[in-house]
UniProtKB/TrEMBL annotation:
<protein>
    <submittedName>
        <fullName>Planctomycete cytochrome C</fullName>
    </submittedName>
</protein>
<dbReference type="Pfam" id="PF07587">
    <property type="entry name" value="PSD1"/>
</dbReference>
<dbReference type="InterPro" id="IPR013320">
    <property type="entry name" value="ConA-like_dom_sf"/>
</dbReference>
<dbReference type="Pfam" id="PF13385">
    <property type="entry name" value="Laminin_G_3"/>
</dbReference>
<dbReference type="GO" id="GO:0020037">
    <property type="term" value="F:heme binding"/>
</dbReference>
<feature type="domain" description="LamG-like jellyroll fold">
    <location>
        <begin position="513"/>
        <end position="657"/>
    </location>
</feature>
<dbReference type="Pfam" id="PF07635">
    <property type="entry name" value="PSCyt1"/>
</dbReference>
<keyword id="KW-1015">Disulfide bond</keyword>
<dbReference type="GO" id="GO:0009055">
    <property type="term" value="F:electron transfer activity"/>
</dbReference>
<dbReference type="Pfam" id="PF07583">
    <property type="entry name" value="PSCyt2"/>
</dbReference>
<dbReference type="InterPro" id="IPR022655">
    <property type="entry name" value="DUF1553"/>
</dbReference>
<dbReference type="InterPro" id="IPR011429">
    <property type="entry name" value="Cyt_c_Planctomycete-type"/>
</dbReference>
<keyword id="KW-0732">Signal</keyword>
<dbReference type="InterPro" id="IPR036909">
    <property type="entry name" value="Cyt_c-like_dom_sf"/>
</dbReference>
<dbReference type="InterPro" id="IPR006558">
    <property type="entry name" value="LamG-like"/>
</dbReference>
<dbReference type="InterPro" id="IPR011444">
    <property type="entry name" value="DUF1549"/>
</dbReference>
């Protein structure tokens, strides 16, 4: 994009930079409730100790010096010199207090903090410590860990000012400081302010007029109620929560491909719009899956815990990243709900807060018991488990119908098995002898699609080839020449672990269709892990989609996999495979998608197995794997020195007696040689499944119908979208303290529990943790929540470190107000809309943001709240405002992310694909729905300080850079919006230029312009009109930006001139600032 303006470029830049820089406020900090008369431990002493002492004399046991802790009261009374009566702190006697003596010392070998720490105490801080000791050295728990208590409304002198309970606390503090509140903001500015705060959009001129004309006492409340009831409210509230949840539309790390998490985002919007009580909002997200009979939405809400980054990078260690995901969930929980920096305790005891490393892992154990894999699939688009299926209503109805059909067909097949017993007996009775063994051979060949003996290897074009004895049209290939050795029958293949045999036969086995694979194999060692055969891409590729037979810890294990471990079926033999002898192994599958339908046979006998996994919900094909392979798999451990012979593949489930025949070459034929009268009851039972498969026409027809119905169901369910959620393992995974946080350095095993410094509890699972978190007795949750909602209105919280309510965090500027709001928030039933309404209707919020010289000196950061809030609009609000005022905004809620205008070549350096813009409505949806790629977030949004969302973020940074002004001037989104605003303006007031400019100014600022402002805008318009008239080639260059068609009803020179004025105002400080 390029600049169109010459004469007004400097003006526009200056206006835009001013809009950004005007709020670059001073970092001067006021000490809450500061007084030199009475020293308070939490507000005066703890900050000193935390900042200068706790690193060496605090909670971290490994770094603790002199075995002294200053973060707990017991050690403050510890004896230093019993004979002299000296303790670290002697209440009332600083001269006998070693703490004071050390900080006041001028001896470089005794002074604390020591010289090499580069830390010192000021004279004022030393004096505070002395006064604290003189006044009795009262020790208090950290302020945020103290339970909430009822707060009395303070008295004020200016009794006519408060509009709500909030105002009494604010005014009381102002009066103590000798200050007065600012005058009320104009009604136009108030409705603009509250509209942005509650919906993220400006008010329309019509909405402003309605409010101005309403002189009733309920006028303000009417506006707030309307805004809270609007669907745009939920969208505005969701933006902040997406930052907290580290929401994105891609996985992150190097591949950073798409993942569909937007259904959770839509749930968040709905939850705020429906005013879901906030304790339930927390509970559903932490543990909705554990609620009694959880609804779809309650399970969906738990996707909150799965928004962390994930990787599929080759060579990554699965367990390392799985552990990292658990750690991320724990840290996010701490920041989002407790306002604590738990991540500091991942590697060691917290240096400042009473949270040990053990307690970090006790907390993390709540998030450590879901059936997940540390890597997502590189070769497929399978969703990492556990997941929630999200079928549309029509699809859900279809699946219900198809599933019912499958169940009926299964029941019918079972009925036929019972009803056909008489036909079987009748068939036997009509035979002088059972059919000949030659008939058995032909029936055993039914469904045989692959038979490889490995006796003869042909070499063609340097590649080894083995014929398929069951089908001349297909063959097998050898990679890296496996060795031929004497086998069970003729020659066999011996594998090195790096080579393999592969064939397309069996490459299309699906989960809805039965199949059988049999072979002879010999192992010379007890393999910890070895691939016997598979149809898949790579082990590290989430397990890998397909089917497999492995040796694990010396035991055969088999599985069908969509995504391991949560979308798969798997079994493992109870007994280890005998070594150094030929064993006939058969794997059969009945097409049911159940672990019971997967069976292992060894030497013709059904093997006793343990069910490892039993939830296969989607297809096992795809992912680039189209061949059956023996002996080796990409990024896996091959069958080293393993031998394989006589491989057979069937597209049916071979019956047990046939499997025994394959193993011993006589069991079936021996039975078939007997007459009916010679067969024992046990032998009849062995023959019956064989007879059903080969001779019972009702059974064969029903089996065919069942397979067809299963295929229909599977094909339908494969179309259903999934989203990652939480689902607890049946048995909790053991959690260990990890030395320095390293996944491969496990230490002590820990039980689930919460930090000792907080209310005592040891909930058994995430639901218990959620209930503990939202308990009315919990000191942190409501304080942290209320503080963030306050920040939403005032740009900063009552605690200015919303992510840190610990010792290193800021103190509350109005502690009693915070506690009062927090306690009443709980008592209201965690009513979010009620809380926001109270703040929005307060006199504190209604104050003008105009400052004064006195306030700039005494309270530059507005901590005392002597004036109204003033800060730049968020990146989303600035963009949405431009679209909304221009009429381009598409008012559509929810759905997949959209791809609006972005710079050409975006993503090119980050991935294999380049960003492709979505034409049509996707370019004009609210910013909330913009596609968010972790490694390359929308550049304009990031430039305007949107959070990157790699980690949990509860407050955005505010910067002021020239790039921000350039974005607003040149980004095609804003250029196109300016054109639409210009056309809309001209059409709204076609006959009078001053009326047009007045309408334009009011649409963007919310107020009528002054005469001097109109004069300036008219001058800009007229001069631009002259320039465009004299240089018509510049008009098309400007108007062709964006997809919106050029309006043919308005002269193009007028469009262009008015467009410049619109851009000027889009960059005006009053438009991009929230005052």
């Amino acid at each position: 994009m390029f600049l169109f303006f010459s004469r007004y470029l400097n003006l526009l830049l200056l206006v835009s930079v001013y809009a950004i820089a005007v709020y670059a406020e001073s970092a001067v900090s006021l000490h809450a409730a500061e007084t030199t008369e009475q020293v308070d431990f939490n507000f005066h002493i703890r900050p000193i100790l935390s900042d200068r002492c706790f690193a060496c004399h605090g909670p971290d046991q490994e770094k603790r010096q002199a075995d002294l802790r200053l973060d707990i009261p017991d050690q403050l009374n510890q004896v230093v010199d019993e004979e002299a009566g000296i303790h670290y702190v002697v209440p009332g006697k600083p001269e006998l207090s070693e703490l004071f003596r050390r900080v006041d010392s001028h001896d470089e070998f005794e002074v604390m903090p020591p010289a090499d720490s580069n830390l010192t105490l000021s004279e004022r801080e030393i004096d505070l410590l002395k006064k604290w000791i003189e006044q009795g050295a009262e020790w208090k728990s950290h302020w945020s860990f103290i339970p909430l208590e009822t707060v009395e409304i303070p008295e004020v002198k200016q009794t006519n000012w408060p509009q709500s309970r909030i105002d009494y606390f604010v005014l009381n503090r102002l009066e103590k400081e000798g200050l007065s509140p600012s005058s009320p903001v104009s009604r136009e500015q108030w409705i603009r302010r509250v509209s942005f705060d509650l919906t993220g959009l400006p008010p329309t001129p019509e909405e402003i007029d309605t409010f101005l004309n309403d002189q009733s006492e309920e006028a303000y409340a009417t506006v707030v109620d309307r805004l809270l009831a609007s669907p745009q409210y939920g969208e505005r509230m969701a933006v902040d929560w997406l930052d907290v949840a580290r929401y994105a539309d891609t996985y992150g790390y190097q591949s950073d491909v798409y993942r569909a998490m937007w259904p959770w985002r839509d749930w968040v919007i709905d939850a705020f719009n429906e005013n879901l009580p906030y304790d339930e909002f927390i509970t559903w997200q932490l543990a909705g899956d554990l609620l009694p009979k959880p609804s779809r939405d309650q399970i969906l809400a738990t996707a909150f815990n799965r928004h962390h980054r994930q990787t599929n990078e080759g060579g990554s260690i699965e367990e390392e990243f799985r552990v990292e995901y658990v750690s991320d969930r724990t840290q996010t929980y701490g920041t989002a709900f407790l306002g604590l920096t738990l991540e500091c305790s991942k590697c060691h005891d917290h240096k400042y807060d009473p949270i040990t490393q053990k307690e970090f892992y006790q907390l993390s154990s709540y998030f450590n018991s879901i059936d997940e894999f540390g890597l997502y699939s590189h070769f497929t688009d399978a969703v990492p488990t556990p997941t929630l299926m999200l079928p549309e209503a029509e699809r859900a109805s279809e699946l219900e119908r198809l599933n019912a059909g499958v169940e009926q067909a299964e029941q019918a097949l079972e009925s036929i098995k019972k009803s056909e017993i008489a036909s079987f007996a009748n068939w036997l009775g009509k035979q002088d002898s059972v059919p000949s063994s030659s008939d058995a051979d032909s029936q055993l060949a039914e469904g045989l699609i692959g038979q490889f003996s490995f006796d003869k290897i042909q070499v063609a074009e340097g590649q080894g080839r083995i014929d398929n004895l069951a089908d001349d049209a297909t063959f097998g290939e050898l990679k890296d020449d496996p060795q031929q050795v004497p086998g069970f029958a003729g020659q066999a293949l011996k594998f090195s672990g790096e080579n393999n045999f592969s064939t397309t036969v069996g490459g299309d086995f699906q989960r809805s269709r039965p199949f059988t694979i049999s072979l002879w194999m010999k192992a010379d060692r007890r393999h910890e892990r070895a691939v016997i055969f598979h149809r898949s891409a790579a082990w590290t590729d989430a397990g890998s989609r397909g089917y497999q037979l492995l040796l694990e810890e010396g035991k055969l294990s088999a599985g069908l996999i969509h995504f391991w471990p949560g979308n798969a079926i798997g079994i493992q033999a109870k007994e280890e495979l005998p070594l150094n002898q030929w064993i006939h192994v058969t794997l059969t599958y009945d097409g049911s998608s159940r672990a019971t339908g997967l069976q292992l046979y060894m030497d013709g006998n059904l093997a006793a197995v343990d069910v490892v996994r039993d939830k296969l919900a989607k297809e096992i094909t795809g992912g680039g794997a189209t061949k059956f392979a023996l002996g080796q798999r990409f990024r896996d451990r091959g069958f080293i020195n393993g031998e394989v012979d006589e491989l057979s593949l069937y597209q049916r489930a071979v019956t047990p007696i046939e499997i025994r025949q394959l193993a011993d070459d006589h069991s079936l034929t021996a039975l078939l040689k007997k007459t009916s009268g010679e067969l024992t009851e046990a032998e009849r039972q062995q023959l019956y499944p064989y007879w059903l498969v080969h001779h019972s026409e009702p059974f064969r027809q029903q089996q065919t119908q069942l397979t067809s119905l299963r295929k229909q169901y599977c094909e339908s369910v494969d179309q259903v979208a999934e989203v990652m959620v939480m689902k607890e393992l049946s048995e909790p995974r053991t959690t260990h303290v990890l030395y320095r946080g390293a996944y491969d350095a496990p230490g002590e095993a820990v039980d689930r529990s919460t930090p000792e410094s907080l209310p005592a509890a040891s909930p058994s699972n995430r639901l218990g943790l959620a209930e503990w978190t939202t308990s009315p007795e919990h000191p942190l949750t409501s304080r942290v929540t209320v503080n963030r909602f306050w920040q939403m209105f005032f740009g900063q919280g009552l605690v200015q470190t919303p992510d840190d309510f610990g010792s290193q965090g800021a103190l509350p500027t109005h502690p009693q107000l915070l506690d009062d709001l927090s306690l009443r928030f709980i008592k209201s039933g965690w009513d979010v809309k009620g809380l926001l309404k109270e703040i929005a209707l307060s006199a504190t919020y209604r104050q003008s943001s105009q400052t004064s010289k006195e306030l700039n000196v005494r309270d530059p950061d507005n901590e005392l709240l002597a004036r109204g809030p003033r800060f730049r609009l968020s990146a989303e609000m600035i963009r949405d405002q431009a679209l909304y005022v221009s009429g381009l905004l598409v008012d559509k809620r929810g759905g997949p992310p959209v791809k609006p205008y972005q710079p050409a070549g975006l993503w090119k350096e980050k991935s294999n694909n380049v960003y492709t813009r979505e034409e049509g409505e996707g370019s004009h949806r609210r910013s909330l729905y913009t596609f968010w790629k972790r490694t390359s977030p929308p550049p304009a949004m990031i430039t305007l300080d949107a959070a990157k969302r790699d980690v949990c973020s509860v407050k955005r940074q505010t910067t002021a850079t020239p790039l921000q002004a350039l974005v607003l001037l040149n980004d095609v989104q804003y250029v196109e919006a300016a054109r639409a605003i210009a056309v809309k303006t001209i059409k709204k007031r076609p006959d009078n230029r001053a009326d047009q400019l007045t309408y334009l100014f009011r649409s963007l600022t919310g107020r009528f312009p002054e005469e001097r402002e109109i004069a300036l805008l008219q001058q800009v318009y007229e001069e631009q009109l002259i320039e465009f008239t004299s240089q018509p080639e510049r008009i098309s260059q400007l108007l062709e930006q964006g997809d919106e068609p050029i309006d043919a009803d308005v002269p193009q020179s007028e469009q262009a001139a008015m467009m410049v004025v619109a851009q000027l105002l889009l960059n005006y400080d009053e438009v991009v600032m929230r005052r």
